Amino acid sequence: MGGLATNVTALHLRNFIDGAWVDATGNDAFEDTDPATGELIATATKSGVEDVRQAVEAARRAADGWRLTPAPRRGEILYRAGELMLRRKEELAREMTREMGKILAEARGDVQEGIDMTYYCAGEGRRQFGDVVPAELPDKWAMSMRQPLGVVAAITPWNFPFAIPTWKLMPALVLGNTVVFKPASDTPLLAVRLVEILMEAGLPKGVLNLVLGPGAVLGDALVSHPGVDLVSFTGSSETGAHIGALGGRLLKRVSCELGGKNAIVVMDDADLDLALDGIVWSAFGTSGQRCTAASRVIADRGIAAQLTDRLVARAKKLRLGPGLDEQNTDVGPVISRSALEKVHSYVGIGEREGATVAAGGRVASEGALAKGFFHEPTVLVDVKPNMRVAQEEIFGPVVSVIETASLEEAVRVVNSTKYGLSCSIYTRDVNDAFRFMRDAETGLVYVNAGTIGAEIQLPFGGTKSTGNGHREAGRAALDVYSEWKSIYVDFSGKLQRAQMEP
Ligand code: UN1
Predict the structure, then answer these.
(1) To test ligand 1's pocket by mutation, which of 292, 334, 442 has the most ligand atoms within 8 angstroms of CB?
(2) Do the beta carbons of residue 451 and residue 424 sit within 8 Å?
(3) Given ligand 1 and candidates 111, 281, 460, 471, which is best to mutate, with the most ligand atoms within 8 Å of its CB?
(4) Which residues contact 104 (CB under 8 A, 6 or more apart)?
(5) Which residue's CA is the closest to the ligand 1 atom numbered 7?
(6) In the chain, is it the N or the C terminus that has fewer CB atoms within a 10 Å radius of its CB?
């Protein structure tokens, strides 16, 4: 193996509240383990309602000071954080691979995406543009400006344990909000590293608080705490619906980034080599555990047989192993035993509905793989668009091939799920490409590229059950983490009545 991360003995991770590292108040511990080997990486105490209360109160106390810190100064702290991330990129990537399994090259990409977002938001310290517009009355000034909401709860997933927290924390912070950060309990270590970096970069105490622990009770306490103004959540559609309902009843802003069932369409005029590279990368990269992962290939009947044969051959060649073994591993483990069981159950579900396993299909347990949670890269064929394997998010290295007879049919199939995150088309026909760009009902569309790999300077998110109408990243993120304030200044010295003067 290519060298373990630095912490050979298990660490004990703590919460970060009001500028201090403190153990959660409860007694129950949870474990952070390497999904490739089962090794213990760290332990932490499960946070509860009391820890949430302390974190939210600290964030509230810090809110005024941070709101009144000039935005360019806030941005400078983010720049410094970006520099630290860059310097620590390799160690962060190694810890990430150990903690959640993605191969090292992808872990480096995850850290890089965090760096990109941090620098991008740092620049917003000197932007955050509002409008100055003409007023309809003489001697009157009209303008709009962004204001922070107050306290942001950031609830983040394990699949991008560094990048996704930065998508939430950086815009929240540069816009002047304070934060309570609750990372997935599978990846507390990378969350601790991110907090360390931001504090080292100069964030004042109380501005960022961290509570560690698994889901339901902790999440509900955070979402329903009256001191939290905005909840930003990335995870499953089921949890998102729950959080949305809980926050909605309290009239909180809730931004949800949820599931996907992303498709790659391959037309009969496509460059098949290119399409295969995109399919393999999008379906099996990160072991299929991206919300943007391709889990459906929609193949035009003119090339379907050839494409399937070649995809099956490529999938069979992929080597499973620990992500730290750069020379010998193409695909790492999935995150946990329960994830492995869920992913594998879809093979049976597919077969019972009439699909055929053309590659993979098994839990991999040869030799050292038995210690981790490995699933063979799997290709299902004879899949019809309405089967469960073609409709439900599997979140693992399983892809279904569906045959179609026209672009119109392909678009219908792309749009036939409850999700709407990402999709792509491989074609050399510019007219087909533009029709697809227009008609695909997803938040992200790719032409002649796979479904993964969104860049942070554009909005990220999806339609239908993929979210609740918000977008992360790019300029769009600013709208999530700020309120608009419209300001009128009348310097006429007399009562002027809008809409009522001649
Ligand atoms: C996710 O899986 O939740 O576009 C995020 C991509 C990455 C982000 C994925 N930049 O695949």
Answers:
(1) 292
(2) yes
(3) 460
(4) 2, 93, 94, 97, 323, 324, 326
(5) 453
(6) C
Are 170 and 300 contacting, i.e. CB atoms less than 8 angstroms apart? no
Element at 97 (helix H, strand E): helix 89-100
- Domains of the chain as residue ranges with CATH: 15-258+467-486 (3.40.605.10), 262-447 (3.40.309.10)
Dihedral-angle region of residue 213 (phi above 0 means left; psi in -120 to 50 means alpha; beta otherwise): left
Residue 465 has pLDDT above 70, yes or no: yes
Confirm whether 256 is a catalytic residue.
Answer: no
285-335 pLDDT tens trace? 999 999 999 999 999 999 999 999 999 999 999 999 999 999 999 999 999
Q: How many CB atoms lie within 10 A of CB 353?
A: 16
**pLDDT above 70 for 6:** no
Q: Is 290 in the pocket of ligand 1 (CB under 6 A)?
A: yes
282 lines ligand 1 (CB under 6 A): no
Residues 6+ apart with CB under 8 A from 182: 47, 153, 154, 155, 156, 210, 211, 212, 213, 218, 219, 222
Question: One-letter amino acid identity for 369?
Answer: L
Choosing from 95, 257, 393, 403, the catalytic residue is: 257
Three-state DSSP at 136 gives: coil
Q: Ligand 1, atom 11: nearest CA belongs to which residue?
A: 452
Phi/psi at 192 (5° precision): -60, -40
Residue 371 is given by DSSP the state G
Distance 59 CA to ligand 1 centre (A): 29
Residue with CA closest to ligand 1 atom 3: 291
Please spell the DSSP secondary structure of 305-351, one letter per residue: HHHHHHHHHHHHHPPB--TT-TTT-SB---S-HHHHHHHHHHHHHHH
- Asked if 376 is an active-site residue, the reply is no
Tell me what pLDDT residue 9 has.
66
- From the CA of 109, give the closest atom in ligand 1: 10
